Amino acid sequence: xxxxxxxxxxxxxxxxxxxxxxxxxxxxxxxxxxxxxxxxxxxxxxxxxxxxxxxxxxxxxxxxxxxxxxxxxxxxxxxxxxxxxxxxxxxxxxxxxxxxxxxxxxxxxxxxxxxxxxxxxxxxxxxxxxxxxxxxxxxxxxxxxxxxxxxxxxxxxxxxxxxxxxxxxxxxxxxxxxxxxxxxxxxxxxxxxxxxxxxxxxxxxxxxxxxxxxxxxxxxxxxxxxxxxxxxxxxxxxxxxxxxxxxxxxxxxxxxxxxxxxxxxxxxxxxxxxxxxxxxxxxxxxxxxxxxxxxxxxxxxx
Length: 302
Ligand code: HEC
Ligand code: HEC
Hints:
It contains twelve helices and four strands. The chain is mostly helical. It folds into two domains: 2-26 and 274-301; 29-260, Cytochrome c-like domain (Cytochrome Bc1 Complex, Chain D, domain 2), CATH 1.10.760.10. Helix 6 runs antiparallel to helix 7 and helix 6 packs across helix 10 (222-231). One heme C binds at residues 99-100, 102-104, 114-116, 118, 121, 125-126, 129-130, 135-137, 140, 143-144, 159, 233-234.
């Protein structure tokens, strides 16, 4: 009798425990991000990375960090679009010739027919694709994915400066984003309206039609977020200043970095941050398990 009683308590308890664990592990942020590829945990260098060694033979060339470590931009919009120094162009051309021209052509005009024309896209677009590791492309034919960048910050900006020099003043520039006075409430509203349909409300990413997918936003820097908004990579729409102003883009970037990348979970567990479905799933199964225990206990007493 005693043994039977124990089995009746233990079985549902083990069941509920197992299901809870599967829910927690299966929907943990790590699993959600694994969609982006195996190496997504590598941190992406920020604009304020430590100074890089000055290349030999160019003692006066400005480094990426000296060019791009502005404090909060002084203008009202919160975004400052930089012009990259002319000294970046020559080394950028050399890097492009050995790493990109085989697909994009010597003049970055897509003459090879393998890869698109990069002229007129601007330094910011090139910076986005190279700094997120999408380029140089490893696997032609599938959507370029985020991976650890091949180039350091200085090299990335040098390549971007060279491509920009082919069509000066045209295309997306590299933005510097000061989020100090950003409005997170506005960022939340704008994100929900413009981005959540594809990237989901928690920014964990989702599949789109035709085999494409919108990646998770947990690794993007504020610069990359604004570059994505302004340049519209792949299947993402391009938002010009008429659709999303600079101030709004800054608020979205601050919201993604502040709330989506560093969520506070008042309940204690994020449950993978996939929203009400995951939470309901775990709540239901744990709750049903406990109710079963109570029922058995009552049944045993009568
Ligand atoms: C193996 C061939 C290959 C190599 C090497 C390569 N690319 Fe690409 N690149 C592509 C293809 C294909 C696309 C289109 C991919 C897509 O839309 O998802 C692309 C897209 C891009 C885009 C976006 C174009 C647009 O219209 O939005 C940029 C910018 C870019 N590449 C820059 C570079 C740079 C800079 C390098 C060198 C560091 C490089 N690529 C190396 C094949 C390549
Ligand atoms: C129609 C669907 C769609 C909408 C709406 C959309 N995106 Fe995207 N987004 C994408 C896709 C698809 C990609 C991947 C592009 C590629 O790699 O080819 C992407 C990529 C990105 C990336 C790069 C992420 C990374 O880590 O590499 C960022 C950042 C981003 N989007 C931000 C935004 C923001 C902010 C908004 C709202 C203003 C937005 N997106 C709206 C589909 C969308």
